[in-house]
Specification:
Shape: globular
Helix content: 40-55%
Largest sheet: 3 strands, antiparallel
CATH topology: Arc Repressor Mutant, subunit A
CATH superfamily: Winged helix-like DNA-binding domain superfamily/Winged helix DNA-binding domain
Radius of gyration: 15 Å
Oligomer: single chain
Distance between the termini: 28 Å
Structural class: alpha+beta
Length: about 80
């Protein structure tokens, strides 16, 4: 329980901004890495999530002065 309280206190102190752990990437980053359009990458990622090949989680990140939840993806091992 102490870890939970520590994590919550850190999240509140940072304004709720999270740093995604290694292995997580946005659809835009995945599209850029693969040389595909964002629309094509999003389509493949949705299908992969539905098939259980990829998991999705939203992280609260600072996007130009505002904090928004942004979906990040990683391959299921």
């Amino acid at each position: 329980m102490a870890n939970l309280l520590t994590e919550l206190a850190e999240a509140l102190a940072s304004g709720g901004v999270e740093t995604p752990p290694p292995g997580w990437a946005t659809a835009r980053a995945i599209a850029d890495d693969s040389g595909k359009s964002l629309a094509q990458a999003s389509k493949v990622l949705r299908a992969a999530v539905d098939a259980g090949l990829v998991e999705v989680r939203s992280f609260r990140i600072n996007t130009g002065g505002k904090v928004y939840p942004v979906p990040h993806y990683r391959r299921v091992v």
